[in-house]
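call fold(seq) -> C-alpha cells
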Amino acid sequence: MMPEPPSARKPTDRNSNPQTMVKVLHMPADTTLPEIASNPHILRWIVILILAAAGYTVATVGLKLAAERSYALASVLIFAGFLLVIVTQIFLLRRTDLTIVYVTIIGVETLMILAVGAMMGEVVDMRRILGAGCVVAGIALVSS
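ret:
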C-alpha cells in the first residue's frame, strides 16, 4: 500500500492549518494586549518570529566579523544563525503566508541590527533611525 502524498493529508490540529493561523494573526484593531497575551498561538508565533530575526542578526554579525578577518568565530556565527533561520522559518511558513512571515522578520531584524550595530560601536545617527523607522512603517503597511 502506497502512503498518501502530503497534499492529500488532512490537517490534524488547528495549528497545522495555514488558513486558521492567518485568521488568528489578523485580529480586530481593538484587540487588547491581554487578549493577545492569552492566545498561545499568537505568542508562539511571535517568539518564533523573534528567533528567526535573531538568527539573521547573528549571521549578519558573523558576516561582519568575517569582513574583519575573524574567520573561525564568524563561521560559527554564520552557520548557527542560518541554522536557526532555517528551522524557525520552516515552522512559520507551515502556518502563515510567505509575505507575512518574511516581511515581518525583516522589520524585527532591522531593529535588532540597529541595536547590535550600536553595541559594536557603529554610529547610529538620526538618519539611520529614521531609515529603520521607514522600513518598519512599510512593513506594517504591507502586513496589515
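The chain has a mean pLDDT of 80.
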